[in-house]
Amino acid sequence: MLLNIILFIGMYPIVFILYFVSKWSSTNRNGTVFGLCVPGDKALAEEFYRQVDEKEIWYRRRMRNIFILLLIIPLPTFVIPYVSIQFTIWMLWLLCGIVLLELPCMKVHQDLKAWKKNAQTILKEQSLKEKMGMEIQDSKAEIQSSDRVRLIELSEAGQVRKTKLLPFLVPTLVSAAIVLAYALFRVDSRGQQMFLVVILFALCTPMFYVAAGWLDRQRTAVVSYNSEININFARAKKQIWNRFWLFCAWLNTAFTAFSAFTLRNDEISVIWLLWGTIFYMAITMILLLFTVRQLNRIERHYKKKIDSMLNEEDDDCWIFGMFYCNKTDKRTFVETRIGYGVTTNMATPLGKGLLIFSGIAILSVPVLCIWMIMIEFTPIKLEIHENYLVAEQLKTDYRIDVGEIEELELVDELPELSKNRGTGMDNLYKGNWHIIYAGDCEVFLNPQNQVFLKFMADGELYYMSAADDNGTREIYAKLNAKPGRK
């Protein structure tokens, strides 16, 4: 149940973020609607917006229905007793949610793209060649002027930098100090094992500066012929993102300190670390929603100042308005047309690499779910083969020489345990675990049983059981009957 609560708090808000971000795809963002450039011709643009208004009614209704469906699907996990099934539902729910919320936008994008191409074709075939020739000359002059302005504005807008090292250096140094303090004051073997965990948490702090600096250096879109509008628009958006990353750096520093304090003290249950993780994830989600809301407000403020004529007619380079693939563009990252932030140019080597990596990551999710189901539903086996005590579940986890087993006991109660590494499910504990106030031990058992084997072997403490209590008692009797055991 605890894992389900963590998944609920950590993942359920994602559907709200995806829903509201996707809804904003129907608004004019930097001269694009549903991932398509607004036509430069005034009459064509007006008709384009009329088409958008008609499609938007269907789009919002479909988005609302999908949103409600996604809110309902995970709720049965609270009555399902199996951790692996809960995890599988959540993972598949997340993947399906991302796809389902994008399908309406993809459909509208394709319909509008087909309409736009058809309308532009009709416009080109209109009569009055002489008049059209004059318009073509005028448009060429405007395009040449637009290109010159674009280069000027791009150069000036690119000079806007809001990310500085010093504000991020302070939380980074604080995180490093936490790691140093943990290293100096850890008191037991478990503290040494958890040291790597604290280091990993601390390393996330400077990574937020890397992310902020990388986003800050991205080429800024040109939205107006007015230099001041371009610079102010870029400055406002970059300032919002810079504050987001800086807050994340300080939040991660606080979480690192909390984790170090929790992992070092046996007096504090590991459950508190889980609740701290939940709180950390929830605050990050709320902050992200707030950031997206601020960005949306900025774009609404500049909506009337954005000149759609500055947009390049590169709709054919955008697949469904979401995926960018342009062999003539050497940029690896470009500002996305749907959603917020940047997307990769899949025609570049790095873009292809990220695409392959994303595909592998997505395909690994069902594999991971199947693996968890197999672990939870495959019974454990504890048997004596020749002169070895063998513990198996999917594979041989432990193979212990019976002659090395000493201080064998049959106990009816487990000590208070917390997992260092391994598996912890309602019907399965295995791996290296920590006994509160008493050091570490190796565990292979079904915690729902009533009796367990406790023994020492090669200086390690073990707690084990068979699939059921009768099997555990049989193994205990056989071990006691083995000659030559210590």
Topology, please?
Elements: H1 2-23, E1 32-33, E2 36-37, H2 42-72, H3 83-124, H4 129-157, H5 165-185, H6 189-216, H7 227-264, H8 270-301, E3 318-319, E4 323-324, E5 333-335, E6 342-344, H9 349-377, E7 381-385, E8 388-393, E9 395-401, E10 406-411, E11 417-425, E12 428-435, E13 439-445, E14 452-457, E15 460-464, H10 469-481
Helix pairs in contact: 1-2, 1-3, 1-8, 2-3, 3-9, 4-7, 5-6, 5-7, 6-7, 7-8
Account of the 3D structure:
- Helix 5 (165-185) runs parallel beside helix 7 (227-264) and helix 7 packs antiparallel against helix 8.
- A hairpin with a 1-residue loop joins strand 8 and strand 9.
- The protein has helices at 2-23, 42-72, 83-124, 129-157, 165-185, 189-216, 227-264, 270-301, 349-377, 469-481, and strands at residues 32-33, 36-37, 318-319, 323-324, 333-335, 342-344, 381-385, 388-393, 395-401, 406-411, 417-425, 428-435, 439-445, 452-457, 460-464.
- 25% of the residues are buried.
- The model is unreliable at 139-158 (pLDDT under 50).
- Helices cover 59% and strands 15% of the residues.
- The chain has 486 residues and is α+β, with helices and mostly antiparallel strands.
- The protein is elongated, with a radius of gyration of 30 Å.
- The strands form five sheets. Strands 10-14-15-13-12-11 form a six-stranded mixed sheet.
- It contains ten helices and 15 strands.
